[in-house]
Amino acid sequence: MFELSHFIIICAAIGAVVGVLAGLLGIGGGVVIVPALVYIIPHFVEMDPQLVMPLAIGTSLSTIILTSSSSALNHYKRGQLDKTLLFSVALGVALGALLGSSIATSIPGYVLKASFGSLLVLIALQMAFYSNRSSNSTHSPYKLFGVGTLTGTISSIMGIGGGAIMVPSLVWYQVKMTTAIACAALCGMVIAIFGTLGYIVHGLGVTGLPSASIGFVYWPATLCIVCTSVFTTRFGVKLAYSLPTKKLKKYFAVFLLLVGIRMILG
């Protein structure tokens, strides 16, 4: 019971942080959840070490369903969801999420871990140095569909909500920052739904997984994380509309850089 209580507290704390980040930066929280679960699950759960990474990714996506939907709802109340923009992007996101989950479950765990670490480093550099400059590109639905497909595929493979990829991409196509964050939040939910289904299906019948998991989703961790994340997203959204996020992004980028390097080094 002592270890179980620690697991619950740790996951609840992760959820609280993730909720704020989801509302503030438009990210689903996978950049925090996946590395955290990779390190804590082996200490509390007996399972095949090679399956820890896909289990962490599938679990992360399952939490993002509620976290992103809560964040998107709060952005919607502020009138920031562009339905026309969402349609083009969301179609690509759904396709990419299904594709990504099928790819990820066939990749060895250590390769996924190193790849995820590399992605964190790239996201950290983007967050630290990216300037919100707009280009002269038009809002082509085909280009937006492409952005959605690429975001959905990478996000589903890595277990993230996709905001760190989608937000700068949409801003590049002259979408207002707060609208891009709102769109990323809703698309994060789409990625999470289709990605989670994929990880469940591909994990059914796999030996070496915890008894409380369904496919590559460990539900005790999911429930503990979302029990706090759905409440703290509102606070993150308020911060997004009241604080300059540039400095906060740089601090968060340093954190991601350190975690990414640690995962690459194993």
From TrEMBL:
Specify one Pfam family: TauE
Q: How does it sit in the membrane?
A: Multi-pass membrane protein
**Name of the protein:** Probable membrane transporter protein
Could you tell me which InterPro entries the record lists for this protein? TM_pro_TauE-like (IPR002781)
Transmembrane domains' residue ranges:
7-40, 52-73, 85-104, 142-167, 179-204, 216-236, 248-265
Q: What GO terms fall under cellular component here? A: plasma membrane
Query: Where this protein primarily resides, as one coarse class?
Result: membrane
User: Could you tell me the superkingdom of the organism this chain comes from?
Assistant: Bacteria
* Family classification: Belongs to the 4-toluene sulfonate uptake permease (TSUP) (TC 2.A.102) family.
Keywords from the UniProt entry: Cell membrane, Membrane, Transmembrane, Transmembrane helix
List the subcellular locations: Cell membrane; Membrane
Q: Does the keyword Membrane apply?
A: yes
